[in-house]
């Protein structure tokens, strides 16, 4: 069993397709099929089952995927250790879209300058997908809406966010979800933590939320709201960065829906030199307040 075989196995497991995995790895599909077959023969088990043109992990495959993530982490840790514990190798960081746009640019630039031997990769996605990436080992760490109490994860807070509802400029004040019930809502796809907060806000006020219109950018959401097509929820810092923000009405929310805390999360026991270096830079830029506790489960 070679690392190259495991990387192919991991890519196919994450993509659910040999063709897409081949594109990701810049290799031909026939080569991946051959290497996977060799790996299954070596292990004496089937790692995938085919269902509706998609490859799904078998029970044995799920076990191997967990070990694969741990082996890659140990590989990177060993690489750093023999270099004197200095950060080096791959470091894959997941982040929410708003965090990537507002809070990460300075930290990313400083990390690149300080640790040029690290191949830092940033992947943006809704919180739900980021957590899945953490648990499967696809991500080394992720900035998500928290705090979280999931077995196997640990973390530290990055920053607090104030959340606001935006509507077209001439909309009357919004005091509860009843004032906008039935209206279309512009949001990211399912798995977005802010979308879940908005759904909980409507449910708390016993108001019917209108149709959820999925848009993959805050700029797009703002444009639709300006046009009078519906409402959207976003952080105050995100709104402040968008051109055209003066063309909408901003409505504050009551607690517990008015605020959120972004956390850096990782799998317990998987803190290597690369992640330690990031945590140190993050805490220097965003000191943890005394009232903020360390996440743990």
From TrEMBL:
Keywords: DNA-binding, Transcription, Transcription regulation. One of its GO terms (molecular function) is transcription cis-regulatory region binding. Residues 1-58 form the HTH lysR-type domain. The keyword Transcription regulation applies. Transmembrane segments: none annotated. CDD domains: PBP2_YofA_SoxR_like. InterPro entries: LysR_HTH_N, LysR_subst-bd, WH-like_DNA-bd_sf, WH_DNA-bd_sf. Belongs to the LysR transcriptional regulatory family. This is HTH-type transcriptional regulator GltR. It comes from Pseudomonas fluorescens.
